[in-house]
Amino acid sequence: MSQKPLLSLADDGNHSMIRRSQFVILIHIFISQGANLDAVLEKYSFDLDDLSSIPSYVPFAVELEIMEEAWKESIDPYVVYRHSVAPDLHRYGPVYSLVQAASTLRAGLGALIQYENLYITYFDIQLHIIDQWAYLSFQINNADLKPHRQFNEFITSSYTNLIRGAAGVDWVPEEVYFSHQQPEELKPSEDFFGSPVYYGAQTNLIVFDAKTLDVAMPNSNHIIFSIAKEDLEQGINDCCRGNRFTNQVASAILDFYHNQEPEDPKLPITRVAEMLHSNTKNLQRKLLANKVSYSGLLSYCRFLLAIHYLIHTEQTVTTISDRLGYTERSSFERAFRRSTLLTPSQFRKTHCI
Prior knowledge:
Blueprint: E1 17-19, H1 20-32, H2 38-43, E2 57-59, H3 60-72, H4 77-82, H5 94-101, H6 105-119, E3 123-130, E4 133-140, H7 149-167, E5 175-177, H8 186-193, E6 197-198, E7 204-209, H9 222-239, H10 243-259, H11 269-275, H12 280-289, H13 294-312, H14 317-323, H15 329-340, H16 344-349
Parallel strand pairs: 5-6
Antiparallel strand pairs: 1-2, 3-4, 4-7, 5-7
Helix pairs in contact: 1-5, 1-9, 5-6, 6-9, 10-13, 14-15
């Protein structure tokens, strides 16, 4: 068996250190697979029952020694990782073990979104709840990756498999949207997702019943999850990335349009700044630092709400157009068609209200 070193997900770029949370998860994975690592742990004075004995960062060489001991006992780390949650998620190793250790799917997805928005700089992932529906979307900010259909489909199917790991193999989303154009072989995608698939959308998106988020994870472990989650959140605070701010702005926009008074449909950036107890200049600066424009974020939020109202309400297209702040119905129809290649009326006809 070849002994390739695994990538430490929170290392310093030289693979010299690994976070304590990842180290603890790694050890628990191997022990659960039958590995006897007591001698190695004792050598380094590591006590899993007393986690204070393990420093915040562990030398990568120690991680390699742990893996070598597992190999000696015919336990392949790659097999462990591949089967931790879903077959196509093995690259993320301990992070997906963290997700699996969460008490509910909501907690697991929350941790994963935090991780990917923190460490994978070309992602922008958001989860929003509108009424009883969950909208899990992701944008690809890397120009080299954005046009690639395979990348969009890999991430979307990965999240779908993750949800199925908790909700059951028969779980299907309500709809799936891709930002790339429709390929010739449409049917295989619909067969995999078990639901309507739309192409040429403004964002990559999975729509599903929000009740699914409260499904208990099959291998929950509150001790491992609490340790790793705390470490993950500390990393987010240390890095001071702007994704959380982007999410706050999006939530404010969604809240405004979903709960607004009909006679006040416009939402200038100055109003959002007031809602977030900030000012326009500061809001624009923070969005720019995260490579997000206010107009783009506004379009994204109105797109989510348009889908929601068309599918899950009986409001007329004109009412939806007015509610989302479009001055004319034709403007709304043009914007919607740019995102879905369908008019709002055509889109609604493909769904049952």
